[in-house]
Amino acid sequence: MSLSAIIMAGGEGSRLRPLTCDTPKPMVPVLGRPVLAYALMLLHQHGFHEVGVTLQYLPERIPRAFGAGERYGVRLHYCREREPLGTAGGVLRAAAGARRPEETFAVLSGDALTDCDLTAALRFHREKRALATLVLARVREPLAYGMVVTDGEGRVRRFIEKPGWGEVYADTANTGIYLLEPEILREIRPDGPCDFGRDLFPRLVAQGREVFGYVMDGYWCDIGDQAAYVRAQADMLAGRVRLDAGVRIAETAQIADSAQLDSLCWVGAGAIVGANAQLSDGAIVGAGAIVGANVRMARSVLWELSLIHISEPTRLGMI
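Structure (tokenized):
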């Protein structure tokens, strides 16, 4: 049975600028693939093949890159938001524009990297007979995330939006991954912006509705800033993410014999690494990029068709 999902991919990614000045956040490359591609791979792996995608910022870029979704084994439907609708409002619009979900459907953020076991989360959702299940992840720095407090049965009791230390009652963050019953669409107000975390879910919890939290066992990273962007790729190279990281060194890459590369680097197709260059500790070289002679790269990302080199000292003299 094919399941349905909606990916929220309309955000501007302002905290990732300048990387997102002319690139939608879901199109930011992670080991040579747009981060959105990993969400599609995950959905296909767990039987979600009908996928709606909400668009707003630079909306033409994602359909141009992904087309109808055949490459990822899914069928994509696109829905453009011409005005901000909020996360829930965007999902309501996407559900109306594509095939309206008739059974449980998933909602994911298109700008997070995760290997969440959606099959296990779906099993939990059905066992609890939930209206909505929020997938939660344990985090080390709770002050940076919206936290969700659940009881011993997993029922959501409270939401805390980016708490102070005196408000830290849980370490489970809202990942933006949801499993929802189709009747929840009737709860989304169509007359203005509506957000899942700030509006819809708190209202349903206050009404005593069946809203549960499932604590995932796996990797999740919100690629919200440049530090997280670099860290997520290093985690993939270190094997901390149960997703296909692809070939570490492309066959068509040109690596000088004297260059030194450790096991935690990645070099894309057609890239050039010059003499005596050193790549280590999560260095990423995009397709067609050039790393000049004697350059040392660590914990950094060079996008495709970019160049990094060491300039020769300028000699000044009398004319």
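Confidence is low (pLDDT under 50) at residues 314-319. Helices lie at 35-45, 61-66, 86-97, 118-127, 196-206, 226-237.
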